[in-house]
């Protein structure tokens, strides 16, 4: 991945505050990158082949859906199984968040559970430390929800979890920016 592409991913996600917004933006980035990968894999110069491939990949074609495209790329061996599963986890979380009216904080247990499932998050020990910090802070200040200690630990945890999400998206995007092996 070139530095400009990397900056683009970070720039697209940097100003988004909530979990729902981050996940939605990440899925949009994956959709774009998978589209570009599909174009590289199925790039053909022969008019007959090109017209068939274009109709399959078009917005109304059977390969228009991101999940279907991922399965095709996985089946062809272009996409690693871990990358496939990570993107599927992002898609599932996006659907869940869109079906719920509740807004989740980045420091929620949902975020921690989600990040634990991802192959693109290399250091899972940091997630356990964050969970322990949040539990300790919450139990130590149950009587005072406005505690400065709780606020500081929550803010610190949100920044770390945001960084984990951004690194995960960037790692997945790097794996999508490959040349066609076919």
UniProtKB/TrEMBL annotation:
Domain of life: Bacteria
Protein name: Mannitol repressor, MtlR
NCBIfam families according to UniProt: PRK11001.1 (NF008234)
Lineage: Bacteria, Pseudomonadati, Pseudomonadota, Gammaproteobacteria, Pasteurellales
BP GO annotations: negative regulation of DNA-templated transcription
Annotated source species: Pasteurella testudinis DSM 23072
């Amino acid at each position: 991945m070139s530095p400009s592409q990397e900056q683009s991913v970070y720039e697209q996600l940097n100003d988004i505050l909530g979990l729902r917004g981050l996940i939605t933006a990440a899925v949009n980035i994956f959709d774009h990158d998978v589209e570009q990968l599909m174009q590289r894999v199925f790039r053909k110069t022969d008019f007959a082949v090109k017209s068939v491939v274009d109709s399959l990949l078009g917005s109304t074609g059977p390969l228009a859906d991101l999940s279907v495209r991922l399965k095709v790329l996985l089946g062809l061996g272009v996409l690693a199984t871990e990358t496939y599963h990570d993107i599927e986890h992002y898609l599932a979380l996006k659907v869940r968040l869109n079906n719920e009216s509740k807004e989740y904080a980045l420091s929620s247990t949902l975020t921690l559970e989600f990040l634990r499932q991802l192959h693109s998050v290399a250091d899972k020990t940091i997630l356990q430390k964050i969970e322990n910090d949040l539990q300790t802070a919450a139990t130590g200040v149950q009587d005072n929800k406005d505690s400065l200690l709780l606020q500081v630990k929550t803010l610190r945890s949100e920044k770390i979890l945001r960084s984990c999400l951004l690194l995960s998206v960037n790692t997945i995007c790097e794996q999508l920016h490959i040349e066609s092996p076919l």
